[in-house]
Structures are given as structure tokens and as C-alpha cells.
Specification:
Serine Threonine Protein Phosphatase 5, Tetratricopeptide repeat; 16 helices; mainly alpha
Length: 391
């Protein structure tokens, strides 16, 4: 090669025109035809035949080879009711979906309540578990047939495990439990779901519905929430449920709130705050605890907050709580009874607002400036009246 010549250029990749049609065809992924079954798999993904598997296995969603209801001899007495849609952009339902829900609409219109309808409902739930009408009609059929509700509870449990954040399936379970008049399985079941996702709103709501419906006040809910809080102190759902158990639940059952004079609960909350003062959940919980009990606990909580502050703790949640605490003292006079004492607290509250706006919670600067102005305007008349009384 001539030293002065340039290096040869690398070969160019083939142009699109040089790629054969066969190459393009072979590169396309094949898509499964879901109209052939509820859970059809591509040919190269089908599991090997397992002779030990039972067709009624609890973990199976449907038969691998779905037979359309139009081709089933036992359903020849029913004409499916197609979905009439006037939309200019109709949903592209699969043939399986059209078949199942066509027959579901037909049996519901005819008012049929038979065992085969329950199976039809199960097939429909596999395709759309969020269909409220489906579960409502299934409950009607269950009641009409005097079906085994324990078996239904097991069935809906499996559905929930696959659809843990579906409101309709949780509501169906709630109604089945009420029909059974027995909530004994619900605490273990919800605990199982919460082990997978400790903040599953639907599981917490179901647990509360059961407690309220059956007036279950004396239950180990505090121990249950305490365990979850120790595992994850930021689990606001567990904190909220704990407050529900202490206050709203007994009230809804016609009993006295367990918050009143509950020093142990105050101590529990302060201990959690001491461990993680930047955790908003226990601060919110503490607000609820002292909401109607400031006279009894003001001194203890004030000393606790002042101690954290003197340790150079500047959690935005601590500072925000101290503003509310000072406002409570200014208006109610728990400690600050003289005008100069109230004025001192107002000055401290305003100073904290400035610190929050400029240092510790800058993203909400406008909010804290507004709070500073509100503190001054809200309590100015109290200081004026107190000053006149002194004169």
C-alpha cells in the first residue's frame, strides 16, 4: 500500500433493496391468535403436556383450547346477544371476548340462574375481572342456587391474588363474607395480600369493612399495624389503619374512642418520631392523637419538640408541627398566659415560617410566607385584647 494513500473504507451494509423478501419475512415475530383460546400461547411457548395436571386445577385460568360457546352443544338453546355499539371507533374485541360476553348478556337478559351460568361468569371474569355487572349477577345466581359460599370464597381469593388492585373483585369478596356471616378467614387473607404490597388500598379497605360490619373492636389490629410499622416506618397505610382502629372503629360500633387519655399511644408515636423525625407519617398520626387532647398532652409534646429543635433537628415536619403547637398555645393558653409570652410564641412561629420558606422547605416557599401572614392576622386581636387587659 502506498504510504500516502488513504486507508480503504469499510464495506457498506447492504441496502434495503438488497434485503430479500424472505429475510424480512423470517425476521417478523409471529403473534398468537387469541381468538383460539382464553390463554393461547405461541407454538414455541406452549408448555409440555403434564399428565399429572388436573383440568380443574385451582391455579389454571381456563382450558388451553377454548371452545367457543356457539360450538358447545349444551349452549345451543341460547342465542348470543351481540354488543350493539354506535361508536365510530368500536373496540376491537377478540372473538373469544365476543363469544363469552355475548352469551353472558343473553343469559342475564333471560334471567337464567343455573350452574352453567356460574361457569360462564368465570370465563367472563378471566377476560374482564373489572366488570361490575358480572359479579353482581354472579351473586344473584349464587343466592338462587344456595351455592357453597366457602367454595366461592376460595375462588374469589384466587381471582384477587391475580387482580389484587381490582375494586370489583374485592367488593364481591366483601359481599360473600357478609352472606356467610363469618369473617374468620379475612384477617389472614388480607395479611397475605399485604405481605406482597403493604400499601394495597383495597386490602386495607376490605379489612376495615369487615371490622366495621361485624363490630369487631377487640382484635389484634394494633399488634398487626405495629409489626408493619416496625418493618416499614414510612407505611402510611398502616398508620392510617392504626388510627382507624383507635378512633373511628369504636365510634362506628357505638363505643368510646380509644384515643382519650391514651398515654401509651402518645409514647409509641414519639418513639417512632425520635427514630426518624423526617418521616411525615408519625407526625400526621400525632396530630390526630392530640387533636382533642391538647390540654392533657401539651406540656409533654412541647418539651419533646423543643428538645428535638435544640438538638439542631430541622425536619420540615417538626417545624410545621411546632407552628401549629405554638398557635394552639397562643389561642388556648396552655403555657403562654401573659401577653409577652404569647408574643414570644408568635415571633417564634413567624421565624420558623421564614426558615421553612428560605432553608428547609423552599419548594413551598409561597405557602410558608402565607402561613406567616396568617399567624399574624389570626392572633393579633388576642394579643391586643390581652394588652388592654394588662393596662
Amino acid at each position: 500500500m502506498d504510504p500516502g494513500s488513504s486507508a480503504p473504507e469499510p464495506p457498506l451494509p447492504p441496502s434495503y433493496s438488497e434485503v430479500s423478501a424472505q429475510d424480512v419475512k423470517s425476521s417478523k415475530p409471529s403473534l398468537p391468535d387469541d381468538s383460539a383460546g382464553l390463554k393461547q400461547l405461541p407454538d414455541d411457548s406452549k408448555p409440555a403436556d403434564d399428565s399429572s395436571a388436573s383440568p380443574s386445577d385451582d391455579d389454571s385460568d381456563a382450558e388451553p383450547d377454548f371452545v367457543p360457546y356457539e360450538k358447545r352443544p349444551e349452549w345451543q338453546d341460547i342465542a348470543p346477544m351481540p354488543l350493539v355499539s354506535g361508536s365510530v371507533m368500536p373496540i376491537a374485541y377478540t372473538d373469544t371476548f365476543k363469544s363469552v360476553f355475548g352469551y353472558f348478556r343473553a343469559v342475564m337478559a333471560a334471567g337464567e340462574m343455573s350452574p352453567r351460568v356460574l361457569q360462564l361468569c368465570e370465563d367472563a371474569a378471566l377476560l374482564n375481572a373489572a366488570n361490575y355487572t358480572l359479579w353482581m349477577y354472579r351473586r344473584k345466581v349464587l343466592t338462587h342456587l344456595h351455592s357453597d359460599l366457602r367454595a366461592e370464597l376460595q375462588y374469589i381469593g384466587r381471582v384477587i391474588e391475580k387482580n389484587p388492585k381490582n375494586y370489583q373483585v374485592w367488593y364481591h369478596r366483601q359481599k360473600v363474607v357478609e352472606m356467610l356471616k363469618d369473617p374468620s378467614e379475612e384477617f389472614d387473607f388480607t395479611a397475605k395480600i399485604l405481605r406482597r404490597d403493604a400499601k394495597n388500598y383495597h386490602a386495607w379497605q376490605h379489612r376495615q369493612c369487615v371490622l366495621r360490619h361485624f363490630d369487631i373492636v377487640q382484635h389484634s389490629e394494633l399488634s398487626f399495624t405495629e409489626k408493619l410499622i416496625f418493618e416499614d416506618p414510612f407505611n402510611n397505610s398502616a398508620w392510617m389503619h392504626r388510627f382507624f382502629v383507635l378512633d373511628e372503629l369504636p365510634r362506628s360500633c357505638g363505643k368510646k374512642s380509644m384515643l382519650e387519655g391514651n398515654t401509651a399511644e402518645i409514647d409509641f408515636t414519639l418513639a417512632r418520631i425520635s427514630e426518624q423525625s423526617h418521616n411525615e407519617s408519625p407526625w400526621s398520626f400525632l396530630r390526630g392523637l392530640v387533636r382533642d387532647q391538647w390540654p392533657q398532652f401539651y406540656g409533654k409534646i412541647c418539651d419533646f419538640c423543643e428538645d428535638l429543635f435544640n438538638q439542631n433537628m430541622r425536619s420540615p415536619f417538626l417545624l410545621a408541627f411546632m407552628i401549629d403547637m405554638y398557635e394552639e398555645d397562643i389561642s388556648q393558653g396552655h403555657k403562654a398566659r401573659m401577653p409577652d409570652e404569647k408574643q414570644h410564641l408568635m415571633n417564634r412561629a413567624e421565624s420558623i415560617c421564614v426558615d421553612l420558606a428560605e432553608k428547609h422547605d423552599v419548594i413551598r416557599k409561597a405557602y410558608w410566607i402565607w402561613i406567616k401572614q396568617r399567624v399574624r392576622s389570626k392572633h393579633a386581636h388576642l394579643l391586643s385584647a390581652a394588652s388592654l387587659q394588662e393596662v
